[in-house]
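User: Okay, second chain of the day. Same drill as before: sequence in, structure tokens out.
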Amino acid sequence: DFLPSPVTPSDPHFSAQWALMNDGSRGGTKGADISATYAWSVTTGSDKVVVAVLDSGVDYTHSDLATNIWIRPNNIAPYEDRELGTIQDFHGYNAVDNSADPMDDNGHGTHCAGIIGAEGGNDIGIAGVNWKVQIMPLKFMNAGGYGTTKGAVEAINYVIDRKKAGVNVRVISASWGSTQKSRALEDVIRKAGEAGILFVAASGNASTNNDRNPHYPSSYNLPNVISVAALDRNDQLATFSNYGIKSVAIAAPGVDILSTWL
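Assistant: Same drill. Structure tokens below.
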């Protein structure tokens, strides 16, 4: 079996990113990672792909994120909402204030955005899984980390609208959830799938079995939903992570993850 030559980025904190390359020197198991350095020999991402981060917003001025933040192209009209009118969505959408400014005042969304797409090889901070990508910030959670189902639905509707307008949104990242089921949320995630958008959702942090006690949105039985559990640096299920043979699709590093919000 041929293994390509690994690619190591110049980012100063890369050595602490065990999830991307785990050499076992920081208390973990060698090779308990996602083999990112080998993947990067094939591709480091693409600025043609848009990933929407549905969370507490994103610090779009962050030095390790700014070049990878989505900007609405001039040939795509501003967002039109039946109730709110025209929203000049320069960088995304804020469903908390129903405004165009999705700046993060909590940190969680910025942390998630860095994992997905902190600029790699720029001698700053960390490397994202994608060195090049367009992050679309969506804010539906406030400074306290609380958001409503209504806000999540509005933000997903925004993404679907932008996709139909010609924006190449391929994925919505949703690292949050609860045990509360919502038909409206399920319906809009299904609609996103029909528009060709994957919905990647955290399995949850309650150490419970989602086959028995569903966690939403990750437990919606929809073809575009991918439910993700958390692993530690020894490739073991994180003590806090939800799981489920039938309802959780995959597991990925999720403990002690260094990102763009410290």
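The two ends are 39 Å apart (CA to CA).

User: Thanks, on to the next one.
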